[in-house]
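YM 10:42: Cysteine proteinase sequence, as discussed on the call
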Amino acid sequence: MAGSKKNKSKKLHASSHIPIPPPPMEDDELMNDLMAQLDSQDAVVQGESATVLNEIHLQKVASGDKLDGVPPGKHDSKARYKARQARRAAALAEQYTPSDPEADARLRQQAEDEERIIKRTCDELNVELFEITPDGHCLFSAVADQLALLGILPQEKASYATCRHAAADYIQLHPDDFLPFLPAAGGEDSLGATSNTGLMSRFEFDKYCSTIRNTGAWGGEPEILALCRAYSVPIHVIQGTTPSIVIHHPSGDPGRGSIQDGKVVRISYHRRMYGLGEHYNSLRPKSGGGKVLASLKSALTS
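YM 10:58: structure's back
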């Protein structure tokens, strides 16, 4: 963090005895600084940033602004992204208890356990974590990075936008494979839900696909499965819980081959490592892979 930015944010919460005046919303530089600090693994920094951002959120609510944080006529992707981040910061601030050292220690321990398990699995696979920007596109960016490494996508097309379109297009073309796993926003009693099922109507389904394709909406299991099938390549998700590797296969059967034989996309899923919550990174091969291959050949021939 640049010194000027850091000093600027420190002034906001330098003393717990003085009320913290929320910074003006037009100060994009400071807002970006605070958002970045939410990803700090330092619980104090994380909590202070969340508190300031929550003050901003509460001030907007008190002044009668829209709760989604997007001013009228301001519905571009940048505005939606800021609104989503502000809501996440508000939720984090509500959960954060800086006066509870036991809760802080518990969260730190969970993050450390997750990091240890993921690192152990990565060591076994001879891969290492490649950091992906935590901006809402992380799943798609991580998969794009892997597809470029595997030669499935040319480097110039390996972007979150390409993977977003691929996932959304595949889901929209195969509604029967995905609708049963996509609940309506408000459950079975919500407006637009299909009768007695709580699942999305076709209108909601099309809107969901458009959201995945054109916004910064976070991707999850449905999108991983869609990308797996769209590019005919297995996607292995390494995580800090059991099982340590979740396998998604294009055919639905890990025992069967695929078009991209011998190629596997490997990404990591982090629940506690980052301040903003769920996050995906790409897992690239470690240097010195030739030594591993040599040892494997030796073991097979002995």
